[in-house]
Write a structure and sequence with these properties.
There is one protein chain. The protein is an alpha+beta fold. The chain has two helices and five strands; from the N terminus they run βββαββα. It has a five-stranded antiparallel sheet with strand order 1-3-2-4-5. α1 packs across α2. It has one domain.
């Protein structure tokens, strides 16, 4: 599974995982961290559920098709693929 910080002009066919800024506020004064790019949604979901860069929480995941998945939806995908 490869994670790469998102850069302008990046390939939009990748899944992008976005973490909250420190304020946890969409309109807050904090700088938003760069999103992470993954080859597949499965890779992005696995990273979201097993990693926490800088102790931040996941804000959302944008699929290669442009769909936005919020934290609860990401958690459900993980649970569907990794039953207890």
């Amino acid at each position: 599974m490869e994670k790469r910080p998102d850069h302008s002009g990046a390939d939009h066919s990748l899944a992008r995982l976005q973490y909250w800024p420190a304020s946890h506020d969409v309109h807050g004064p904090d700088h938003w961290p760069d999103s992470y790019e993954f080859e597949t949604v499965d890779d992005a979901v696995a990273f979201a559920m097993t990693q926490s860069p800088a102790g931040r929480d996941v804000a959302w995941l944008r699929t290669p098709e442009g769909e936005i998945l919020k934290a609860g939806q990401i958690r459900r995908l993980w649970e569907m693929r990794h039953p207890h």
